[in-house]
Amino acid sequence: MAQEWYLMNTNHDTVSGFETEDFENFAKDGFEEALQSAMAESVEICNYDLTERTPARVIMNGKVQDTKLNSISRQMLFPIGLCRAGQYVYYKERYWIIVGLEDDNGIYGKAVLALCNYYITWLNDRKQIVQRWANITSASQYNTGETSDQYAFIRTDQLLLIMPNDDECIALPHRKRFVIDKRCKLYEKSFSPDVTVDTSKPLITYFITRTDNVLYDYQKSGHSEYMITQEEQHDNDGYYVIDGKGYWLCDIPAENDDKTNSLSCEIVCEEPVIYNGLEPSVFLAKFYDEAGKEIAASPQWSINCDFKNDLDIQYIDNSISISVNNEKLLNKSFELSLSAFEYETAKLVVTIKGFL
Amino acid sequence: MNMKKDTSERGKFKNKIHNALYHSDGIKEVLLGDVSGMTSSEVRKLFKEHVKSHLFVDEVIQDTQSYIFYDVALTYMRENIKTCTVMMYVVCHRDILDNYSKEGYYGNRADILSQMVEDCLINDEKVVRDFGIGDLKLDGVEPFNGRYLYGCVMTFVVPNFR
Description:
The structure holds 2 protein chains of 2 kinds. Chain A is mainly beta. Chain A is built from 5 helices and 26 strands. Chain A has helices at residues 5-9, 19-35, 167-170, 183-190, 257-260, and strands spanning 41-46, 53-61, 73-78, 88-91, 94-104, 109-115, 118-123, 129-138, 146-148, 153-155, 158-164, 177-179, 197-198, 205-212, 223-231, 238-242, 245-249, 264-268, 273-275, 281-288, 294-295, 300-304, 312-316, 319-323, 333-339, 346-353. A 6-stranded antiparallel β-barrel of chain A has the order 1-2-3-6-5-4. A 6-stranded antiparallel sheet of chain A has the order 7-8-11-15-14-12. In chain A, strand 4 (88-91) and strand 5 form a beta hairpin. Chain A is flat. The mean pLDDT of chain A is 86. Chain B is α+β, with helices and mostly antiparallel strands. In chain B, 31% of the residues lie in helices and 30% in strands. Chain B has helices at residues 8-22, 25-32, 40-50, 109-121, 125-128; strands at 51-52, 66-77, 81-93, 137-145, 149-161. In chain B, strand 2 (66-77) and strand 3 (81-93) form a beta hairpin. The longest helix of chain B is centred in the N-terminal third of the chain and has 15 residues, at 8-22. The mean pLDDT of chain B is 90. At the A-B interface, loops of A face helix 1 and helix 3 of B.
């Protein structure tokens, strides 16, 4: 609709002819003013792991609903540029994820929010805990929940899971397993403070059977969707205390696995960066025995890249010192590997940066 | 199609200028004080707080410190040649202008710092030839008189191929 509507249909005969420009000039200001009124709400825009939170005023539409499905969806009107798909919105003590591509009409931006109803936890490949709020909806709403052959019945259910498309979510492998069970909170109430592992509780577990990380990728924003399928609980699925905090996890390596991994090594450095034209960056090798005690060993370094000849490399005792003075290599990376006889290889990605 | 990269000098020059300034012990001493007990990364981090590859807004910086702010402009473009201009603000807070001196250098802290910058970019044969075609030239020095900061604006020029 053209903004000139009130120039054409006005009842007043004192129009100046500049009303359209005023409308365009003050369009955003009008919305900003509305954000200060009781019509608007205070929310927080959060990144994928909730470490960055930006307070903001927005107008939330669709709050009063008359269907079950609509009640867990909202439309958010916000100042242009405030947020993007895949971010979380903390609104009325709940997390909502922005789904679909956000856009604006020159006055305000609009995004669709889906309620996050479960805080999913998993261990990534580096054995680090990752947690994300997820919007989970049924993908098999009216099935019986069971499937059978002649002799046995097993659980069957499919859920659709929406999460951000950050590196951890995108890296989720096919058949990755999760615990998705509200009873976890119930079980935790009965645990004594000294519990560190409990795999005795019946749990509902799922594994990823389909990953859509491109369908909802909008280049500078987006989210990922996963189809997850229910399966039977494994023996080591359960509650684990890691660094003093309890998590419900699947596919935890059996106890003592770490110890049997025996000899390990580590690359220690101030930062995995080499500044072009500056002093060398030093990477130190550290070796550990089965008990995790530091021991001496002879390091074997390897550099994996196609520009190794352009690097100035010095080996000093158990460290490697690398410098570079070639602006063509700016912002390139290489893999530095450390190993020794019978030790697990440690790897580090090192980036060459300009010093600014 | 051959991609034009006329603006790449802005970034390339900044890397070279930053490196050259960082390698000057005199500049580090004036800007950062005694760095002998610091690790390389601590020095780098502190250096980044005092040397910026962009210009600044007067009155925003009120700390009693010394700074170098610079930017690179491509001021004149002909068919095959362009002129690259480096504008460098060498400035010190007024409260510490007169409490520094060094053998071989003259004037107040800002004056000394500008001489060190000249040493570093113009009097070092390796550095002066590292920009564009021929040598980097000092084209002018004008006083800068801000509310909190005092110093000079040094303008360097060098032609380069497009």
